[in-house]
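Suppose you are handed a protein chain with no further information: no name, no annotation, nothing but its sequence. What can you learn? This example shows the usual starting point.
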Amino acid sequence: MVGELLSENALYRLRQAQGVLRLADRYGVERLEANCRRSLEAGDPDYRTVKGILVAGTEHESTQLALPGIEVPAWLRGPQAFGGKERS
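A reasonable first move is to predict its three-dimensional structure. Written in structure tokens, the prediction is:
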């Protein structure tokens, strides 16, 4: 995840990367690794996201939302799912 943070605008995101590495001191390496995997899966590799997940203790939960009776969320189905018409 640190590599992802530093891949663009490295100087701007250096403090975030250092902050992520410091979280291992407080929460442990195993939790931090699991959290980094989760935030990368969610597409949000950001210090605040990483810290928030660690504080909440949800690093081992799935990033997929499961809605009962719905296989695909409505926003992925297109305008028909909302009763609207497609634009051409």
